[in-house]
Amino acid sequence: MATKQHSPDSPVKHRHRPEGPQRHIVVFVFSIVLTLIAFAAVAAGGVNPTFAVILLLVMAVLQVILQMGFWMHLKDKGHMMPIIFMLGGFFIAGTCIIMSLYWVWWD
Amino acid sequence: MTTAHAEAANGTLPHEPEKATLEGRNKVLAFWLFLGGEAVLFGTLFATFLALRNQTNEGPSANELFHLPLVAAATFLLLVSSLTSVFAIQAMHRGRVTMLRNWLLVTVLLGLCFLVLEIYEFSVYIRHEEFGMTTSAFSSAFYTLVGFHGAHVAFGILWISVLIGQLMHKGLTVVTAPKIYVSAMYWHFIDVVWVFIFTVVYLLGKVG
Amino acid sequence: MAEAAQSLHPSQPLKHGHSVKRHTGLMDWITTVDHKKIAILYLWAGGIFFGIGGLEAILIRIQLIKPMNTFLDAQTFNELITMHGTTMIFLGVMPVIFALMNAVIPLQIGARDVAFPFLNALGFWTFLFGGILLNLSWVMGGAPDAGWTSYTPLSSTGYSPTHGVDFYTIGLQIAGLGTLIGGINFLATIITMRAPGMSFMRMPMFAWTTFITSAIILFAFPAITVGLVLLTFDRILEANFFNVAGGGNPVLWQHIFWIFGHPEVYILILPAFGVISEVIPTFSRKRLFGYSSMVFATILIAFLGFMVWAHHMFTTGLGPVANALFSVSTMLIAVPTGIKIFNWLFTMWGGQVRFTTPNLFAAGFIPTFTMGGVTGVMLASAPADFQFHDTYFVVAHFHYVIVGGLVLGLFAGLHYWWPKMFGRMLSETLGKWTFWTFIIGFHLTFFVQHFLGLMGMQRRVFTYLPNQQFDLLNLVSTIGAMLMGVGMLIFLTNIFLTSRRPADAADDPWEDGRTLEWTIPSPPPEYNFKQTPLVRGLDAFWKEKMAGHKGMTPSEPVGSIHMPSATILPFLMSVGIFIAGLGFMFSRDEFSSSIMSFLFNNYIVTALGLLITFGSMLMRSLFDDPGWHIEPEELEGR
């Protein structure tokens, strides 16, 4: 396309300062820590299974909320429709999982 | 819109070039909608896996099969690649094309490593553990869920590679920027799915 | 879109007089990205599949005209009922719904096209090739025969050893992809492309139901995608999802199918609700009663639609807790649906009602659909369902909601918007003949089936013994089906005769049009609106009429209009998926010719198909579409 190309790495004047990498690195560290807790709990063994299930799921959900909020910018303004439709998707996915846990096998 | 137009006409891109045009905004929105559908797709696959997770049909069970170090390595690779794709978008927002390209390349490489690891894992299961698609309902569900994710990674690698090529040829424009932004969303989503896979399939499989 | 075009090429002035390659004839139809032409393509393709499904229905009814009939054998009968259901739902009525959405939605919201014209074309072609693949089964070794629900293990290789069910899984997979693409496209279109002033709560009701329908498509179709993948893997790759011997569970298929399948029936009926909500106010010269409650009811129906799937499985043995839960949630749906019924009645009450053909269909819709709804509540009662399950009572119920609801709604919509789509008014006389023959035929066919079901006649069985009091009612039912066929023939005659008349429909041919599509010529020019209109309220056009204005106030000066280029890539992508699907289906077959074996057994055909598809996608990504412009001089000169 004929649109002008940026000369590589030329400093560009911005009215809005783009956000820095710091908060994304913080999210990354949090993700690593949450993942480590999950792996460690399983690797250590001897954890009560019910507690392990709850702990692992909480770690996973926290990590996903962090990543979708910050890395995918869902926390930013103007994301109402994406949030509605992602929640809708997760809701139906959750329905499917309830189905599979309770209504596929029974005595 | 008018400010975006003016800035671009001066040879500079707006702060968020992916949202500078109606086409770009439509693309980002529609991709979010698509990801909503993908959430249901993976939700159904997870549901299938959970329903069949104990149906080992006298084949290997999750506990016997999985090795946590391998999973941890794969997890780390994908997590870092998600971070590098954040850096790529930040570089894009600063208008730094070379840095953008480099971060995209790192992302693709990490994705490739993940994929190699997964193929290695599958081949070990098939060759040494006698755990194939037809072994049990559990094996079918495992390969389908994890394989669907792997196919998504593979498609993402191809996609981002094509975009790197376009970035080099066409430059960063209001046409290429939305494509790159959307591919980054896709990549993050793949990582999000993996968070659930390592939790539900591998870690909970180990717990039993 | 003009605005978008300017910002797409910011660093250079718009290319004025940019020449565009115009295709004609068949190439025009294959390469078009114009939503109005895609609407006509959907209508034609859907109409043809609807005709095939209708013929299958007539054959079924002929077989059942008398006890112990030998017109068809059991296998053919099974194939016919399977293909009748599958064809009608996925390939007959859904495309016609998409035809109406494509024809009307951009016009109703004041847009020049949908958000993604390219995807729009892709959605159509994938649907069409999926449909063709499914119907190829008739000539390639037998059609699927496990019912449209394709329950395992009946649909597993043990009981369906031919390729019939493979055509079902892969054909529906491809067609479903097209539907999903269409759904996302309409969601994005309605969210972002509304004319200035048209807030969500000023949207016409048909736009609202399209929006909600598309959302249901988005959340329901991925589930069947997975279900079909699992069944395909079971059948072709010998996986064990539904294979009890390998640890699988057939109930899982039922769940996944109905988690999709129940929302699917709301995907079908909500657009019909939208059509009725347009037709009734127009011909009552009154605004829709309870607009906001209508919107709320639509959203509630969509939500509840996902929460009721297991009412199809009451007899599976889920237990009293699950059965009670799903019973209650199912009965709840009657509440928002009842709100809608009363809103339509209150709209007509006190209005200056004109019984034109569309309004006749709409008025016929209300009691007919209500009857289907009432039997729905009966079926929702789990204990009673043990009696009704798999009998003709169920058949009567779902034909009342789908034919008596959706198809009457589609007839209303087609007669209503025909002048807008084609520039010609359908004959009112023939239209009324269509209505009366069709609706009388319909009630003859299906009303008696309630009683057949209550007396114990099972569905999906190819014949029955004499002297069980089934004989007369089945005869009546078959006569009714013939009468419905006559109604369809009158409709086709009407279309044929109309197509030979000059295209002289006025902009607002019904004279009481309330929404934006009636402010522009019939049929509209390819850019729809010369100037995007400014919307000042619900029923935007009616509001201007009441204010004494002739047309809409424009929201922009006349300017250059950017249009997307025609392209063959959507067609090629769909051809590629079609080839890949066929290749995968036959990948485990033994062929007499060694070349064929080599090509299919090594997945070479599949790879070739995927190469075409991904190659076309790459082309689309690499070569940007600059589009072309319609200049103000051209706009003024028409």
From TrEMBL, chain A:
It is a multi-pass membrane protein. It comes from the Bacteria. InterPro entries: Cyt_c_oxidase_su4_prok, Cytochrome_c_oxidase_bac_sub4. It is found in: Cell membrane. Keywords: Cell membrane, Membrane, Transmembrane, Transmembrane helix. The chain crosses the membrane at residues 25-45, 51-71, 83-105. Its main location: membrane. Pfam families: COX4_pro. PANTHER family: CYTOCHROME BO(3) UBIQUINOL OXIDASE SUBUNIT 4 (PTHR36835:SF1). Belongs to the cytochrome c oxidase bacterial subunit 4 family. This is Cytochrome C oxidase subunit IV. It comes from Paenibacillus phytohabitans.
UniProtKB/TrEMBL annotation, chain B:
It holds the Pfam family COX3. The keyword Metal-binding does not apply. The chain crosses the membrane at residues 29-50, 70-91, 103-120, 140-164, 185-205. One of its GO terms (molecular function) is cytochrome-c oxidase activity. Gene3D superfamilies: Cytochrome c oxidase, subunit III, four-helix bundle (1.20.120.80). The keyword Membrane applies. It is a multi-pass membrane protein. One of its GO terms (biological process) is aerobic electron transport chain. Keywords: Cell membrane, Membrane, Transmembrane, Transmembrane helix. CDD domains: Ubiquinol_oxidase_III (cd02863). Residues 29-206 form the Heme-copper oxidase subunit III family profile domain. It is found in: Cell membrane. GO terms for cellular component: plasma membrane. Coiled coil: none annotated. Belongs to the cytochrome c oxidase subunit 3 family. PANTHER family: CYTOCHROME C OXIDASE SUBUNIT 3, CYTOCHROME C OXIDASE SUBUNIT III. This is Cytochrome B oxidoreductase. It comes from Paenibacillus borealis.
